[in-house]
Design a protein that fits this description.
Blueprint lengths: L10 H13 L3 H11 L13 H7 L3 H9 L15 H8 L2 H9 L14 H7 L3 H8 L8 H6 L4 H15 L6 H10 L2 H4 L1 H16 L7 H21 L4 H13 L9 H13 L6 H11 L9 H9 L21 E2 L7 E2 L2 H11 L3 H19 L1
Bound molecules: zinc ion (2 copies).
Length: 377
């Protein structure tokens, strides 16, 4: 695009240009094109797809952001099978892209011609992390009422609104994951008492919706509000990082003989017990399962809670991180190969307790492998 390009190109040229740039993932080209032409890119190709839909399908976060910033409508579609931009986004498997679309008003309830939502299509193609982003999403505007009800000042609101929104949208409520997040978003620690009260208010509001209560969301808000109560103890602490690290270690400490994270299990079972809406089917199911499970056996409380938040997954092929509960933990302890971690940071955090059990885990694994060989022979 040169200086002498007409300000508003003819429709054909314009269409060909933007679709070609998106196909070629030419971020700079698109940036220049949008600056030069100042065209709102709501247009359709022969398949009824918008440039944004093509960009979403190709997983191009930066291109999607550019198009949205220039007025692209996230819900526009004339696709023959009524796929929305969110359907294409979830097929790309890119979590940040899916979140971007939701933040800009993508409708998660939109269905294609065979009645499938984006979340269902994502599960079908195995993009579970992206599905989790959709299933755990709540619009930022859902915080308006609670902020007003709690008379939150503009200044405090500016500090806690976005961190709270991200916190509520998480699909992993492992205490260490939440504490890690709060450590980065320190306003959640400084204002922990208030944040806890707002979350509790939101939980009660969710359960008072006539006939259509979102029990899973209410339960998540309940768990998070309890963590905020814990975090409020760090408010007055001189050295907040030290206080938070001690809290994380308390949750991760393993006990004899097998390294069970006993404190965490007992804490979460108590939090579940305190959920005020005991009659909800989800809670009946969780409580029933835990009643039959000894502390130290599987499933653990955190596994059960996270699997409810993310829709029970039938085909799990990875162990969650033993330090923070994240699903995509691809690293293993190099010695015992029995526990999974996200990365070296999580491994380092949990080493203080794992080092006591690593040798035992190694022996157990070798014994189990020998058994297996013997049986096959
Ligand atoms: Zn981790
Ligand atoms: Zn080990």
């Amino acid at each position: 695009m040169g200086e002498d390009t007409p300000a508003v190109p003819s429709a054909d040229v314009e269409e060909a240009m933007i679709f070609r740039l998106v196909r070629e993932k030419d971020v700079e080209g698109i940036r220049r094109y949008l600056q030069d032409s100042n065209v709102v890119p709501i247009q359709y190709d022969g398949e009824g797809m918008t440039p944004l839909q093509h960009a979403a399908y190709r997983g191009g976060y930066e291109i999607c952001r550019l198009l949205i910033d220039h007025g692209a409508d996230v819900n526009a579609t004339k696709h023959a099978h009524k796929y929305s931009t969110l359907h294409f986004g979830v097929m790309s498997g890119k979590c940040d892209l899916v979140r971007l679309l939701l933040d800009h008003g993508a409708d998660p309830t939109a269905k294609n011609t065979v009645g499938k939502t984006a979340s269902e299509i994502g599960a079908f193609v195995g993009n579970h992390d992206a599905v989790s982003v959709i299933n755990n999403y709540v619009p930022l505007s859902s915080l308006d009422g609670p902020f007003k009800a709690k008379k939150v000042t503009a200044e405090v609101r500016a500090a806690i609104e976005n961190p709270m929104h991200d916190l509520i949208c998480t699909g992993n409520v492992h205490p260490v994951s939440v504490i890690n997040f709060a450590e980065k978003q320190i306003s959640l620690v400084v204002n922990a008492k208030l944040v806890g009260e707002i979350l509790e208010y939101m939980m009660n509001r969710e359960m008072s919706v006539d006939g259509d209560a979102n029990t899973i969301l209410a339960f998540k808000l309940h768990v998070l509000s309890n963590y905020e109560k814990l975090l409020s103890t760090a408010c007055s602490s001189e050295d907040k990082s030290k206080h938070l690290l001690a809290l994380k270690k308390k949750f991760l400490t393993g006990v004899e003989p097998d390294g069970t994270q006993e404190y965490m299990e007992k804490y979460l079972r108590e939090v579940i017990r305190l959920f005020p809406f005991v009659q909800s089917p989800m809670i009946v199911s969780i409580v029933g399962t835990l009643a039959d499970t000894k502390i130290g056996d599987h499933p653990t409380a955190i596994t059960l809670i996270n699997s409810h938040l993310n829709g029970q997954r039938m085909f799990k092929n990875s162990e969650p991180c033993v330090a923070c509960g994240a699903e995509s933990a691809s690293k293993k302890c190099s010695k015992c190969k029995s526990v999974s971690y996200c990365d070296a940071v999580c491994q380092k955090l949990e080493w203080f307790t794992h080092k006591r059990f690593c040798q035992k885990f190694l022996m157990d694994r070798l014994a189990a492998e020998a058994d297996k060989k013997f049986t096959i022979a």
